[in-house]
Amino acid sequence: MNQLLPGLLITFFLYLISDYIKSKIGIQYVNKYLIAAVIGIAFMLIFKIPYETYKPGGDFITFFLSPMVVILAIPLYRNFRVIDSHKLIFLGGCLFAVALNFVLLFLTLKFFAVDDILKTAIYTKSITGAMAMALNESLEGDPSLAILLVSFAGITGGLTGGIIIKWFRIKSTLAKGIGMGAVAHLVGSMTIHEHSGEEAGAVASTTLGTVGIMTAILLPLIINYL
Amino acid sequence: MKNIKAFAIILLIWFTGELLSGLIKNIIVIPGSILGFIMLFMLLQLRLLKVEMLSEMADFFLGHMTLLLIPIAISFIGYFKVIGESIVPILMTGVLVTIISMILTMKFVDILVSMQNKRKGKVK
Q1: What ipTM was reported for this prediction?
Q2: Which CA distances in Å does A182 have to A37, A114, A208, B76?
Q3: A 20-39 residues with CB below 8 A of B?
Q4: Which chain A residue has the Cα nearest residue B67?
Q5: Distance between CA B16 and CA B33 in Å, rounded?
Q6: Could you report the per-residue pLDDT of A129-171, keeping only the tens digit for each?
Q7: Secondary structure of A7-25 in HEC code, one letter for each residue
Q8: Which one of A104, A167, B6, B33 counts the least CB within 10 Å of its CB?
């Protein structure tokens, strides 16, 4: 059998099933992604399907995330007015998120003895995968460990974002987009696009790039002091 | 044919981004896809590329982004073995700090936006 087939089949059917369930229940803060993640992991564990069987097809789909990042320039172009009319707040929000992330991680890591490789990976958790991998490589970290942390942050943000927006009564599109893009990178941007619409998605994907570039500039300068 | 052409343009821009990323990698690490994102945005803003050309293809992809993210969620099964004893710091930073950062960042921006709106209201 073709190696890609199991992963492709599982992913496409998970998407179809989650789309169907979502259209039936329609609870606002349960997103399609959460449904697909829960059913998918449960399915793999219950039927004892080894991850290695899924991986080739999964990697094939993940490949499309890169051209997807390029495509995200189109919603940004369509909704540029939102950012253009709030330039200072946008940049301030991004910088706030980067600084807050560093401070919170610094304080948390005070309680744990982690080695330098894990530490570097942790500090790059909120930027997009490709960027985190490259940054870890240049800082003598472990790119695959970086991807693990990046996935943790992305999934956490993608799954909890809708609930946070509801519980903490976040109103502005700008806040939703910046929060999701700055903390949960690509996963956050895509889930907020589904959750709050194209405008929020456009803000999030621009934030993702901005925060990534800010982190890539700042982290190499301060990593030795962290 | 229109959508195939549109996707080919995206691939070409991505490729250019990758080349550029390789050139500047000693100065700053920026992935080719992010540079492609910036380039496509500039091409659209400068009207060198018409958005109508790309719209249909883009909307198809934008409508199904969740599909592309499913493998990341499934990959957690593969990670169970790797995490091992680092589980506590990974959960504390990857999950807890992520949630706190998100709440504070959203609140911060939300307050700034409502302050700006109020000020604009007064000026009027």
Answers
A1: 0.88
A2: 22, 24, 6, 22
A3: 31-33, 36-37
A4: A15
A5: 9
A6: 878 888 888 888 888 788 889 988 998 999 899 999 999 999 9
A7: HHHHHHHHHHHHHHHHHHH
A8: A167
